[in-house]
Amino acid sequence: MALVGPVELLVLTFPGEKLAGNVVEVIRDVVTRGDLTILDLVFIFRSEDGAVRTRDLDDLDDGADILELADLAVQPTVLVSSDDVALIEDALAPGNSAIVLVYEHTWARQVARAIQQAGGEVGLHVRIPAETATAALLAAAAQMPA
Question: What pTM value is reported for the model?
Answer without folding.
Answer: 0.77
